[in-house]
Amino acid sequence: MNGPDLPVWAAWIVVVLTLGGAGFALTGALGLIRLKTFYERVHAPTLGATLGAFLILTGSMLLLSLVEGHIVLRDALIGLFITLTTPVTMLLLSRAAAHRDRTEKNPGAPPEP
């Protein structure tokens, strides 16, 4: 790396945050594969993606702040967009699927609110 040396303690924190975020994202992806119904499957990736992205972006902001010598908050905007759009998308998909299942009179459809 051509630039200032990163302290070992900071490198370890960045590694832990990044691997933790990747672990949460992997857990969400595995939930998408392993769970059986649509309503179960839609929940796991939403939580995994949101928390995983938050941890990865925190590690990225820490690394860039230490390398550039000032606080870097560019990645916080990415985190804000992910935090706002992922749950909204999950909610819209779930409502559309519930409406379709109720219209088709599927036995596994969620009850009317």
UniProtKB/TrEMBL annotation:
Listed PANTHER family: ANTIPORTER SUBUNIT MNHG2-RELATED (PTHR34703)
Keyword Lipoprotein: no
Pfam families (UniProt xref): PhaG_MnhG_YufB
Transmembrane segment boundaries: 6-32, 44-64, 76-93
Top-rank lineage group of the source organism: Bacteria
Protein name (Swiss-Prot/TrEMBL): Monovalent cation/proton antiporter, MnhG/PhaG subunit
InterPro entries xref list: PhaG_MnhG_YufB (IPR005133)
Record keywords, A-Z: Membrane, Transmembrane, Transmembrane helix
